[in-house]
C-alpha cells in the first residue's frame, strides 16, 4: 500500500464531516450509549482519521472513527467540533485503513468481514490470493467470509445482532438466497439450535448419488454440500444438493426425455401389433401387465399409463399391476432389516453414551452388576488406550498404569468412562440390552441414520408402497401420482421416492427400524409446522 501523506490535525465541525466507507454493519446500542456519555464527560480524546472530500472544499470523509462520529453527533450536535487527523488517501488506501482500524479495535462481525472481503476481491480483480495477502488473512478465512457474503441482508443483520450463531449462518449460506429469510424465521421462532437447524435443512436437500442427471456441473456448484464442507465446520451432510429447485428442474428434463423415449418405443410396438394378424386380445393383455419382482407392484390400476390398441379392434388395454404376495405389515417388513436395525441402534447408543458421561456411567454400573461388562471385547479398549490416556500408556507396566490412571484429570476420566460405555453398546451380546439402554437414555436413531437407497433396495415393491404410506410420502405426492411411480421399474421407483420434491426422509424412522415397531415422524418441530416449512423451502 502506498504511504499516505499527513496533512495535519485540526478541530472540525461535525457538519463538515461525512461518513465514508465503514466496514461496520452493526453498532451495539449499549456501547454507543456508553461512548456518548464518555464524550460528554471528557470530550473526544482520540482524533478521527479523515481525508478531504472529493467534491466539497473544507469538507472531509471519515476513514476511521465511525462509532465516535455517531456518538459525537448525539453528544454535541452537528455544530460541535471534534479533533481529526487529515490525510490525503486514495480509495484503496482508505479501504485498507478502515478495515485495519476495525480489525484492531472491537472485533468486527463475520458479516462485516464478509463485506470487506468482497470489496478487496473486487479491488484485486478477482485474485483471491492477492486479496487474502492484502487483508492479512489466510486463504481459507477469505473463502469462508466470501461464502458468508451470499447471505441475505436479513440473515446478516440477525447474525450481527447475535440472534443466531455463526453455525446457523454457515448452514444458511448453503441455501439459495430467496429461501434464507423463511428459514431464518423458523430458526428464530422455534428457537432451533444449530443441530436442529441442520436437520431442518437436510430435509430440503437431495442426495446427489440418487440424481438421474449428469452431475458434472454439480462438482463445482456452490450448492453442492461438499463445497460447504470444505469451507465451514457446520454443514449439511456431504454429497447433497441444497438447491431443490435446480435439482428438480434437471430431474424433470431427464424424466421428460425418458418418457419421450418410452412413448416412441411404445408407438413402434403398437405399429408392429397393428401389422400383425396373429395377435389376440389375451396375448396383448398379458404383454401389458409388466409384473416385476414376482408380482410386487401392488393392486393398483395406473390411469395415466400408456395404452396400446388391440389389433384390428380399435379398443385399448391399460397396463394393470397385480399383487399375488401376502399382506404387508410392519412386522413382516422388519424381518428384512433386522441386521441393519441392530447395527444402527448399537452405533446410535454408542455415540449417545460417548456424549453423555452420566448415561455412560449408569450403563457401566448396570453392565457390571448384571455380569455383562465382560462382553466388551479385550481389544476394543486396549487398542484405544493410547488415545484415551497417552501414547506411552500401552507400553507401561501395570503398576505405572495404575499410577497414571489415578493422575487423570476429571475430564480425562470422564472421556475414558464414556469410551467404555460406547464399547459396551457395540459389544454386548443381547440386543435387548441395547434396546433397553437406548429407550432409558432417550437415544435417537436419527443422529446416525436416515432412509437411503441401500435401505429401500431391501424391499419389494409392495413393501416399498407400505413404507411410503406409513412415512407420509403417498399422502405428500397424492395417490394417483404415487400409483404412477409404482408402475415404474424398482430402481426408478426408489429414485422417485428419494427425490420427491419437498419431501425428505432425514427425520422419518420407518417401523422396520424403530425399536417399538411403530413409525416415528419428525420430532423437532410440530408435524404441521415442519411440513409447512419444508414445503416453503422446497418451493
Automatic annotation (TrEMBL):
Q: Which UniProt keywords apply?
A: Chromosome partition
Q: SMART domains, per this entry?
A: ParB (SM00470)
> Which stretches of sequence are listed as region Disordered?
266-304
Q: Name one GO molecular function term.
A: sequence-specific DNA binding
Question: What InterPro entries does its record include?
Answer: Chromosome_partition/occlusion (IPR050336), HTH_ParB/Spo0J (IPR041468), ParB/RepB/Spo0J (IPR004437), ParB/Sulfiredoxin_sf (IPR036086), ParB_N (IPR003115), PRTRC_ParB (IPR022396)
Which GO CC annotations does the UniProt entry carry? chromosome
ParB-like N-terminal domain span: 10-103
An annotated GO BP? chromosome segregation
Q: Bias regions of kind Acidic residues — which residues?
A: 278-295
- NCBIfam families attached to this UniProt entry: parB_part, PRTRC_parB
Known PANTHER family for this protein? CHROMOSOME-PARTITIONING PROTEIN PARB-RELATED
What is stated as this protein's family in its record? Belongs to the ParB family.
UniProt-recorded name of the protein: Putative chromosome-partitioning protein ParB
Question: Which species does this protein come from?
Answer: Edaphosphingomonas haloaromaticamans
Q: Which gene encodes it?
A: parB_2
Amino acid at each position: 500500500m502506498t504511504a499516505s501523506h499527513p496533512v495535519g490535525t485540526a478541530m472540525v465541525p461535525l457538519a463538515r464531516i461525512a461518513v465514508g466507507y465503514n466496514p461496520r454493519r452493526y453498532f451495539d446500542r449499549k456501547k454507543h450509549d456508553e461512548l456518548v456519555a464518555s464524550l460528554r464527560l471528557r470530550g473526544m480524546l482520540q482524533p478521527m482519521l479523515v481525508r478531504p472530500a472529493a467534491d466539497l472544499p473544507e469538507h472531509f470523509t471519515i476513514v476511521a472513527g465511525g462509532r465516535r462520529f455517531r456518538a459525537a453527533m448525539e453528544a454535541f450536535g452537528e455544530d460541535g467540533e471534534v479533533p481529526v487527523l487529515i490525510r490525503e488517501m486514495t480509495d484503496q488506501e482508505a479501504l485498507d485503513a478502515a478495515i485495519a482500524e476495525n480489525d484492531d479495535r472491537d472485533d468486527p462481525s463475520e458479516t462485516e468481514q464478509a463485506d470487506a472481503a468482497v470489496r478487496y476481491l473486487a479491488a484485486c480483480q478477482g485474485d483471491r490470493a492477492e486479496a487474502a495477502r492484502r487483508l492479512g488473512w489466510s486463504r481459507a478465512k477469505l473463502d469462508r467470509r466470501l461464502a458468508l457474503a451470499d447471505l441475505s441482508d436479513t440473515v446478516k443483520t440477525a447474525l450481527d445482532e447475535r440472534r443466531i450463531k455463526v453455525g446457523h449462518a454457515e448452514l444458511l449460506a448453503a441455501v439459495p438466497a430467496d429461501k434464507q429469510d423463511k428459514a431464518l424465521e423458523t430458526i428464530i421462532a422455534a428457537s432451533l439450535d444449530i443441530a436442529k437447524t441442520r436437520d431442518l435443512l437436510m430435509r430440503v436437500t437431495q442426495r446427489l448419488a440418487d440424481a438421474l442427471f449428469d452431475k458434472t456441473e454439480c462438482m463445482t456448484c456452490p450448492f453442492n454440500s461438499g463445497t460447504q464442507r470444505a469451507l465451514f465446520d457446520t454443514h449439511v451432510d456431504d454429497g447433497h444438493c441444497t438447491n431443490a429447485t435446480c435439482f428438480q428442474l434437471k430431474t424433470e428434463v431427464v424424466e421428460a426425455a425418458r418418457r419421450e423415449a418410452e412413448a416412441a418405443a411404445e408407438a413402434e410396438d403398437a405399429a408392429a401389433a397393428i401389422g400383425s394378424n396373429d395377435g389376440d386380445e389375451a396375448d396383448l393383455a398379458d404383454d401389458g401387465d409388466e409384473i416385476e419382482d414376482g408380482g410386487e407392484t401392488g393392486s393398483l390400476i395406473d390411469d395415466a399409463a400408456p395404452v396400446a390398441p388391440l389389433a384390428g379392434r380399435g379398443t385399448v388395454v391399460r397396463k394393470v399391476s397385480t399383487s399375488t404376495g401376502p399382506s404387508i405389515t410392519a412386522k413382516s417388513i422388519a424381518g428384512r432389516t433386522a441386521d441393519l436395525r441392530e447395527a444402527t441402534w448399537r452405533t446410535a447408543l454408542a455415540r449417545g453414551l460417548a456424549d453423555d458421561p452420566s448415561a455412560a456411567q449408569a450403563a457401566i454400573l448396570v453392565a457390571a452388576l448384571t455380569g455383562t461388562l465382560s462382553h466388551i471385547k479385550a481389544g476394543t479398549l486396549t487398542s484405544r488406550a493410547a488415545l484415551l490416556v497417552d501414547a506411552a500408556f500401552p507400553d507401561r507396566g501395570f503398576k505405572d498404569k495404575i499410577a497414571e490412571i489415578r493422575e487423570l484429570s476429571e475430564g480425562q476420566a470422564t472421556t475414558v468412562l464414556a469410551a467404555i460405555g460406547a464399547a459396551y453398546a457395540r459389544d454386548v451380546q443381547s440386543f435387548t440390552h441395547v434396546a433397553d439402554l437406548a429407550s432409558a437414555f432417550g437415544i435417537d436413531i436419527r443422529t446416525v441414520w436416515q432412509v437411503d437407497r441401500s435401505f429401500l433396495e431391501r424391499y419389494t415393491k409392495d413393501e416399498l408402497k407400505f413404507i411410503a404410506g406409513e412415512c407420509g410420502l403417498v399422502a405428500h405426492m397424492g395417490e394417483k401420482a404415487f400409483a404412477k411411480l409404482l408402475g415404474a421399474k424398482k430402481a426408478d421407483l426408489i429414485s422417485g421416492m428419494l427425490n420427491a420434491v419437498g419431501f425428505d426422509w432425514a427425520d422419518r424412522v420407518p417401523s422396520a427400524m424403530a425399536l417399538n415397531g411403530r413409525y416415528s415422524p419428525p420430532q423437532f418441530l410440530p408435524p404441521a409446522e415442519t411440513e409447512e416449512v419444508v414445503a416453503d423451502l422446497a418451493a
